[in-house]
Specification:
Layout (H helix, E strand, L loop, with lengths): L1 H4 L7 H15 L3 E2 L2 E2 L4 H17 L7 H25 L3 H22 L1 H26 L1 E4 L11 E5 L2 E7 L7 E3 L6 H13 L8 H18 L2 H18 L3 H22 L15 H12 L3 H6 L6 H9 L8 H9 L1 H19 L6 H14 L11 H16 L9
Antiparallel strand pairs: 1-2, 1-5, 3-4, 4-5, 5-6
Helix pairs in contact: 2-3, 3-5, 4-5, 4-15, 5-17, 6-7, 6-8, 7-8, 7-9, 9-10, 9-16, 11-14, 14-15
Length: 415
């Protein structure tokens, strides 16, 4: 915690405190006295970006050429596709989506420029810890309430409430009498994102083995609350592939092989963690829902098949098409639906090229960024992580891309 408090003794203190608060606030997704706090994110982000532009104007923040290139690679192709979609959909919602993407990419640039990915990840670790403590406190001091006016259409009406703060509860995987919860950060999988990125940040920490072990204990405690199997899959793939790339002796290869086998066994166990047979897979029983999404893509007009139903409009389109509001928790199906088969192909191709381009201009070891990329790709099988208009799903990898451009070995406690 003392590393976080050190910002008070540094230059640009106001902006750093503002960035810290913006990260915390943007991940929060609870209800307060029946009103969703996430509705205020966009107004606060506009304020943060406005203050940041003042710092840029007075050259307190210097924007480099490669950072501009990365910004354009992330935003411009999507914006062009949105323009094409606007020509035949005539929906103002597409303009809002474009604004959200610009805002999230700009915020990611500011976060990396002001505090950097290691400090960002350190903050997420403390958020992970404080959230699990708050959940435990709410369990003993709060109460469970039913409020159908606040629930998501495909969620529950159950909330854990304390001091007017209402946190959504979802059915758990450990049995019919258990629940999963994301606490102050809304959906349990969003809490899982915070936890996994916080743990990835340990690669840039000079903390002792004991401290790192304690953080792993905290992480597994957060996993018991969130049951985010996609996040633990991200961590498994990241650390194992990182070790495989960086360790090349025969002994290390043997250890890596054993770890890989154990991880595969663990992944199979996690994939079948659900207590009921209807939901007994890592997709939470949503494989059939993805089939519905694919059928919707292939049975609609050619223009929708080729260029999509509108970025950010996937759920609304499925609701109109089949009468169901489905959780499209797969980045690739959602991309195919919202961007179309041609638009989605070029979007994904440019997205991969962006990682390749940044990877060619970074000093960050490939044993770090390649496993991180693999983790994002695997996570995309179970969450819409490519949706840059959703802060909690994509912000972490956008910050990481900017970090790759600015990484310098001696600036961080890289282990």
């Amino acid at each position: 915690m003392k590393h976080i408090l050190e910002i008070y003794n540094e230059k640009n203190m106001f902006l750093k405190v503002l960035v810290f608060f913006s990260i915390i606030f943007n991940y929060m997704a609870f209800y307060y006295n029946g009103r969703g706090i996430d509705k205020y994110h966009i107004f606060f982000n506009i304020f943060v970006l406005g203050i940041s532009m003042v710092y840029v104007f007075f050259k307190k923040i210097i924007i480099k050429k490669r950072e501009i290139q990365l910004f354009l690679l992330l935003w411009l192709p999507t914006s062009c596709l949105l323009f094409v979609q606007f020509m035949y959909l005539h929906s103002l919602a597409l303009i809002k989506t474009d604004i959200l993407i610009v805002m999230n990419v700009s915020l990611a640039f500011i976060v990396n420029k002001v505090i950097g990915f290691p400090m960002y990840a350190r903050l997420l670790r403390w958020m992970m810890l404080l959230n699990i403590l708050f959940i435990l406190f709410a369990v003993f001091a709060g109460n469970i309430m039913i409020d159908p006016t606040l629930a998501n259409p495909y969620g529950t009406s159950l909330f854990l409430s304390i001091f007017g703060i209402e946190m959504e509860i979802s059915p758990g995987s450990w049995g019919y009498d258990t629940v999963r919860i994301g606490g102050l950060f809304g959906h349990p999988n969003f809490y899982g994102v915070i936890s996994m990125i916080g743990m990835i940040g340990l690669n840039f920490s000079n903390a002792s083995v004991k401290v790192k072990a304690l953080w792993w204990v905290v992480y597994f405690a957060s996993f018991l609350a969130s049951e985010s199997r996609a996040s633990i899959l991200f961590l498994f793939s990241f650390f194992i592939l990182s070790r495989i790339i960086s360790k090349r002796t025969f002994k290390d290869i043997l250890i890596n092989f054993i770890l890989l086998i154990l991880s595969l066994i663990g992944a199979l166990a996690l994939a079948n963690l659900r207590d009921d047979s209807a939901n007994a897979d890592i997709t939470s029983g949503r494989t059939g829902l993805m089939e519905i999404v694919w059928n919707s893509i292939m049975t609609n007009p050619d223009i929708f098949q080729l260029f999509g139903v509108g970025i950010g409009q996937g759920k609304n389109f499925i609701l109109r098409d089949v009468g169901l509001l489905l959780p499209i928790d797969n980045a690739y199906f959602l991309t195919a639906l919202e961007c179309g088969l041609i638009g989605g192909f070029f979007f994904f191709l440019i997205w991969l090229f962006t990682w390749y381009h940044v990877g060619n201009h970074t000093k960050l070891p490939c044993s770090i960024w390649i496993p991180f990329l693999l983790g994002v790709l695997l996570y995309g099988l179970f969450e819409a992580t490519l949706s840059m208009y959703t802060y909690s799903r994509s912000f972490h990898w956008i910050v990481f891309l900017f970090f790759m451009l600015t990484y310098r070995k001696h600036d961080y406690n890289h282990e």
